[in-house]
Structures are given as C-alpha cells and as structure tokens.
C-alpha cells in the first residue's frame, strides 16, 4: 500500500447520533437559548415595528424594470434575471382535464433555503429570521437563516450582500446535516428547484437583531400558530433526517419505490412554454392577468418599500389565488404503526410529472359535495375529535400574494386500508427517507411533514 493510501481515513457512512440529537431538540418545547416559546409572537411583532415595510398593489405600467416583451407578451425583467411570467400549454392523456392553458412562473435558477444549526448546552438550536415578504398575509414570519434566489445572492438586484450566505456556499464553514434539491409549487412554477440545507456550525454565530435561536420543539409549538412559520422554513425542516422508529410498514421500501416509479411512467403529461399574449381563456388588463371567467388565480403587481432588505424598494409581479386552499393527510394505524395516505400527484410544473402529495390538495370552493377529489368529503365531514392538526399556513410570500392553505392531519378508520389507484399508505419514516432525495415529495406534503418532524403533530 502506498503512503498516500495508508494515510486516507475512512469514516462512517452516516451519523448514528444525529437522530438522537434531533429528537432531544424536538423534546425541548418551552425555552431555548435566548427566548421563550410564548415570547416569539411578541418578538416578531416588535421586529415588524422596528422596520418600515409597505406593500402597495399597482398597475402593470408602474412596474420599474419590468415590462411585457414586444414579441411574446411575457412579463419580464429588463436584466433577464429573477423570473418571467409566461404561458403554459398542457396536454394530458386522460381526464379530469385533457388540455388547458395558464400563466406560469419560469425561474430556472436554483435558490438557497438554508438554516444554521448549533448546540447550546448540548441541545441543537436552529437560527431563524424575522423576515417580511411582499405577499405574506402577516408581513413578518419566521424564515430560514438564508432565503435567497441566485439573482439575489449574486447581486443582480445591486443591493447589499445576503447575510450569512457564506455558511451555505463555503463547504469549510459548517457541516451539512441535510442538503437536497426540492421542487416548489408545480401548479405555479415551471421546473423550479431550491437547495434545502441545514448546516451545523461548531459555535454560535453573531446573528443580528432580526434572528433568533430556537429548538426543534419550540418551532413545533409555533407551527401550531396560523401564519407564523413561513413556507421555506417548513420545507427545510421537513428534510431534517429525523427518525420515527417505524421499522415495519404496510409496504417495504423497495415496493414503495417500485410503485412510485410505475406512477411516473403511467401518466402522460406534456407541458410547453408558450407566449403569454393571446393565452386562451386569460385576459391581460391594466392591473391583472385573469382567467375568464375569474377563477383559480390572477397575476398582479406590487410596489414594496423596505428598510431592512438587501434593496430598500422594488416592484414585482405576484400570483394571487382567489380562494384559500386545503392540504390534508389522512392518517391511520396498521398494526399499531401510524401511516399517512399519500397521493401520486400530477402537476404540470414538475420536472418528472409526478411527486408524492398529501391525501387531498385542492381549492374546496371549486367543488360541491361529491364532486371534488377523492376523500375531500371525508375531510369536510370530520368530527373535531379526529383532527390532529388544523392550522392555516401561508405559501411563499416572495412570489405569491396572500396565498394560504388550511393544513389538516385527520385520523380516520373510515379511510380504506386498500386505497384507489394513485394512493398508497406510507409511514412518516418512509416519507422522510424519500426526502433525502429530490423530487419525490411535493411542497404541500412537506409542509404537513414539517409539523410531524417538529412534534407539532403527534400521531
């Protein structure tokens, strides 16, 4: 053996102690290193008062740096960066919808959603930021340490640098606990991907007044409050490598992956970007791009004033859903082991057509009794004692305006043990194992999973 070969040091393929450290953090629910859980909403309100942040809807002609491209009518930024609003034409191989057109956000760059972790008194804490976004229904929510598009962190906005970014771009600054590419909303983004990261530092960092250290258990308690934990925090925490002790399940992991691969291959969906101008069933007005008749969502524009962001003021388009949505997991025990009923969802903006979603993901106002997706009526008729989780969470406020979902976990023995095609019972551990890889579990299911991984939901 060469001297160089002898000097190489082999290491374990995984950290056996990490799951225990995460479990200990999840058990600490009352007080962290610097702030009590009950004081966090007041701290967020104080941070909101400390900064000027104003959002005003505006007509499209008041957008600064944005405009409709002469050839396509696409809504674009003059720099060619950030994102564009384009048209999408979708064809499917079968019902319920064979063909449709819609506006969609095209943002091919990969953003970073990163949370810093470190230990205080032997307990892992996570660094979250009090951050305002133009589309938030409550302006300031708990966001990741870093939440930045590539355009932002490479300086396309000509603003100040993104604080703490180096902890996620320099591999020598910390140890990754999770690092995986995940999709965003497949109904509103075309092939959008973000890098979801948790990086542990050996010592606490000088965070700043708009940041706070919280345990996983504290975050779980705060996940029980409407519109307090933002979407980007939820998706990152869903990817944390927690364990649930579910060594047995209805289906073994190889069977799950085979079923999922079969779901991807059996669906026929073709989506192609088309010009926004002349998009069938949609009209472009002075203040909005809307479906005719008004339905689903609209595209609008806002002007933003902010004194604590990389840029003090800007304008941008936002997508605004017309009604609140519903995302829900049905849960049931088999042999004493909790399972979640997942749905292989087809969405036009996914890279691979299908990702695992919650049991129900829809806008209930679009469906009367007996006319909606499978299991919607079961959610609607649930008794209060069956509900394990029922909280309203906002979607990403940097691209969506007042987009909210009612997020529900419902225990029901009425849910069929052998569900219809496209549905499969998985344990929480099986889902979190899939989240170590990209594009298996959609962002709506990740929101509900984050409530389980942080202890906000006890199954």
TrEMBL record:
InterPro entries: EvaA-like (IPR005212), EvaA-like_sf (IPR038153). GO terms for molecular function: lyase activity. Residues 38-239, 254-451 form the dTDP-4-dehydro-6-deoxy-alpha-D-glucopyranose 2,3-dehydratase domain. This is NDP-hexose 2,3-dehydratase family protein. It comes from Micromonospora profundi.
